[in-house]
Amino acid sequence: MSGQPRFFRKNLIDLDLDNASWDITDSVATGLGENFTRFMLNRDNNSGWGTIGSSDAGNTTLIMTCDDILSFNTLILVGVNFKDYSLEWWDDIAATWNDFSTVIDVTNNTRSTIFHQFDQVQSSKVRLIITATITGDVDKTIRQFIVTQTIGSGQFKGNPILKKPTINLSKKAVPTISGKAKILERVGAYSVDLVLSSWPEDDDLTLLEELHFFQPSGFLFWPSAGDETQFRYKRIGYRNEDIFLCGVASEWQPEWEKGIYVNGMGMTVKLIEVV
Question: What's the predicted TM-score (pTM) here?
Fold first, then answer.
């Protein structure tokens, strides 16, 4: 059951929160990319952070420090080229680095988007140590660094229909003097309808209530749930790297199937990307 959509809180170190700082070390790199760390937090896979002049001979360490103590049980790394790496959390009371309940010490990774889940921790720091890249001796890179918490059960037990998934580029045809047109477009905004028919899963309905009523700043919606192999083709919107900050744009309409209270519920939940 790994393929059902997943839901998380908004990145706890999202760029608009401005609550994280970074300390980077690398024994051989000529540049540590300090000016680009904020690009890991802007929800955009077209930008990111990277070293300059690093190689596998020089371990690269990134320490994220937050202004506050965070409670989280998930780390998602998007657009990475890490082959071997480890992740640890800082115990602010004992002042020690610790492994997560599920130890994260990865070797021979081949995926560009990875997520790790573990027992919830409370910490102000996360340490990422990169010891090798998928293509040897190139600079280390990452597009998004997401520190988050699952919402409710965190994942649907059933498979809703993803209806009318749309990446709206706001395309506009502008006439030119020649009579031809120039197409202008903006960064795409995502939307989708989750269609649930006679839904029997109580945990899923509780999760939907949480999304509707208790996530005012939005939530992360992950259509692939980290398993893009379930799709015949890896298309935009269904790739592992496609994680959207969404809100619920529809009203709460919990209708019992055929009005029979012991049946499941049916509803359509419209998600739309938010800022």
Answer: 0.92
